[in-house]
Design brief:
The protein has a domain of 131 residues: Transposase IS200-like (Alpha-Beta Plaits). The N terminus is likely disordered. 39% of the residues lie in helices and 13% in strands. A 4-stranded antiparallel beta sheet has the order 2-3-1-4. The chain is globular and about 45 Å long. The protein is built from 6 helices and 4 strands.
């Protein structure tokens, strides 16, 4: 699959964010998806499997099943603790990833909120017709993994093979998802205020 090339990663300021101030319509044909991608070493698979066993977790649990909620909380806490190489802490890599998210905003999807953390990325997008979520994420991951490995002079896995996605049900869920994404640096102790974290939609709102 050919990978579209976002702007060069050494640019500090990415492409303009087309979706500022945008509020979605919940009765339309498009889907709102809350997403999390993490680096391959952010949360060891052995630890996740141990948690699943401890919680008696099973595939295809309902979204609000307490076991699934607890598993996601544990993974999020572990991510926020900053485990692994945390390559996204490097401004060159954070800029690369942010540019990739912004590059097709307004064309292949609408980017509503995002946050690039040291070892994972949160995003909220509205999909477009004939643009499957899996293809969008594959494009992001494929391009950024290749480019980041070149910058870091390394090879091998960069992103964890799987990603987390959740359909946003209604306006209340939407606002909660945006707040969760933009508050993540504050919760992780990386910023005092959400708008102080450079690699997020909250920072862009500050400069509107």
């Amino acid at each position: 699959m050919a990978v579209s090339r976002p702007p060069e990663p050494d640019r500090v300021l990415p492409k303009p964010w087309h979706s500022r101030g945008y509020l979605p319509h919940f009765d339309g044909p498009f889907l709102l998806q809350s997403l999390t991608l993490r680096l391959y070493d952010a949360v060891p698979d052995s630890r996740v499997q141990a948690w699943k066993s401890e919680l008696a977790w099973a595939e295809n649990l309902p979204a609000m099943d307490p076991r699934d909620i607890e598993l996601r909380k544990r993974i999020a806490r572990y991510e926020d603790a900053g485990h692994g190489n945390c390559w996204l802490r490097d401004d060159r890599i954070a800029s690369l990833v942010e540019n990739a998210l912004l590059h097709f905003d307004g064309e292949r999807y609408r980017l509503i909120a995002w946050c690039v953390m040291p070892n994972h990325v949160h995003g909220l997008i509205e999909t477009r017709e004939n643009r499957p979520l899996a293809s969008i994420i594959h494009s992001w991951k494929s391009f950024t993994a290749h480019s980041a490995n070149q910058i870091l002079d390394r090879s091998g896995d960069f992103w964890f093979r799987e990603y987390f996605d959740r359909f946003v049900r209604d306006e209340r869920h939407f606002r909660s998802a945006v707040a969760y994404i933009e508050e993540n640096p504050v919760k992780a102790g990386l910023a005092r205020l959400r708008e102080e974290w450079r690699w997020s939609s909250a920072w862009w709102k500050r400069i509107e």
